[in-house]
Amino acid sequence: MNYLSIELRKTKRRGIWLVPTALFFFLMIWLGHSYTGSNGNSHIQYGWMDVLYYTPLLNAILIPTAIAVLASRIIDMEHKGNMWKQLETMQSRRALFLAKTLYGFCAVLLFSLAEVFGFLVLGTLFGFAGTPDWWSLGLFFVQTLVISFNLYLLQMIISIVFSNQAVALCVGLCGSMAGLFLMFLPQCPILRCIIPWGHYGAAMFVGMDWNAETRKLVGFYYMRQDNGAVWFIAVWFIVLTVGGWLLFKNMDTDGYHFQGIFGKRNAVLVSQKPVRIPLLPTELMKIKRTPIWIAFLVLPLISALIGTANFLNNLEILTSGWYSLWTQVSLFLCYIFMPPLLGVYASYLWRLEHNGSNWNMILTHSSAYRIVWNKLAVCAVVSLFTMLWLGILFIVCGRCAGLTAPVPIELADWMLFGFIGSVSVCAVQLFLSLIIRSFAIPIGLGLVGGVAGLVVTAKGFAYALPYGLLSIGLRANNPNRALNYELFLTSSVIFILLFYLLSVVYIKHNDVKTQG
């Protein structure tokens, strides 16, 4: 326990506990919002069952990314400055591994307890009918604790093995999307059991009845749980605990080295005279052979597969062909996963500057205006590639789903204005990654911003938030929605210029901070 207290002191004032705290309040606000408005009474009527049904869905979407951010923050502090060597002179590897594991367990335990306590508070505030089913709440608590802790172990191991935290965060984002995808494949329950991100769906014990014709809620019911999911969860716990310890035990004192995976090993640059390299290609070289391309390829792919599966399962409701398919393909991506993905791009572009004394070197060769401009341009180019990749997947999935009608010409409009909206998000994320040295926290803020974009869009204030511009630009929730082009372009230009200038001002008026 003394080593755990050391971990607590090491992470003091680093904002690590803000991650589970922010996630908890965000979930409570989301659930509380569902009990207000026109549909609030129908949700309050079923009260406790409603909470037990919807919360695992939200957990499957949000917790994996938050866990990835948490684990990355806990481990990355040791990678910086090559602290593993120094730590081993003060404590054994077993004590160090146990302290990191217990730290994460405490965070997950407190979050799981707070979530159940939050249910009780919501039930009291909104007057849920009946009394809470303590057995169901207890089962939900245990499931959330064990599944989330397994994910923490997995993300902790990845963060230990790869000093580049982009790998761990990309895995967390892709895993979250994969778990969500498996929830839309009820005919393949074994797949939800195999991967740890699918365990939230595999462990659900409350189902929902709804009328397909009226699309209204009928009620909830308890489902028979598959014992196979319990065994898979237990096996994953053993494998991650034992395997993680063995990997950590056999790690070199300066960590693992995987330069050969994402870059050329033993590459030596020899130059007889100074060579002037244009800054924009230099920024592009920074993301060459980097793990961000994993998320670039996988996240839109899984989003397209989710949308296509949901489209095929609801053909009696989704009758507008290509337009209905577009809502399904783009909905989760633009609200939940695209903003964190843009956050990964932005954080990676600033990562090299935040390491070592790179700030000193780069500021001697170029102005703050050009530094920020080149990073914004590269981030915009990568987001453009993401939009084009999404468009290709949309067309391919539509043909595979049996749509024979011509591809709607509006697709070019959706992608163009979705791209413009994404550039405004890039400007915000670049500013956040500039002022926050952590690689992970701006990505978590991107997730929060994406859901905030969903809220402001539903309230009719999408033009007031960059993340809302992304959603209405793509027309993800309504392809036939009329877009106010003048207001959209004006808002986009304002946000891009605002955060571009804020980034420039921050660089010019703040002392350079280096990390040895």
Question: What do these coordinates show?
Answer:
- With 516 residues, the protein is mostly helical.
- It has 2 domains: 1-267, no CATH class; 283-511, no CATH class.
- The chain is built from 20 helices and 2 strands.
- Strand 1 (206-211) and strand 2 (216-222) form a beta hairpin.
- Helix 13 packs parallel to helix 16 (368-400) and helix 17 packs antiparallel against helix 19 (466-474).
Strand order of the largest sheet: 1-2
Radius of gyration: 24 Å
Largest β-sheet summary: 2 strands, antiparallel
In total, the number of domains comes to 2
Main features:
516 residues, 2 domains, two-stranded antiparallel ribbon, 20 helices
Topology of helices and strands:
Layout: H1 2-10, H2 18-34, H3 40-79, H4 83-88, H5 93-126, H6 134-161, H7 165-183, H8 189-194, H9 199-202, E1 206-211, E2 216-222, H10 227-249, H11 259-262, H12 279-286, H13 292-313, H14 322-354, H15 358-362, H16 368-400, H17 410-435, H18 441-459, H19 466-474, H20 485-509
Helix pairs in contact: 1-5, 2-3, 2-5, 3-5, 3-6, 3-7, 3-18, 5-6, 6-7, 6-10, 7-13, 7-14, 12-16, 13-14, 13-16, 14-16, 14-17, 14-18, 14-19, 16-17, 16-20, 17-19, 17-20, 18-19
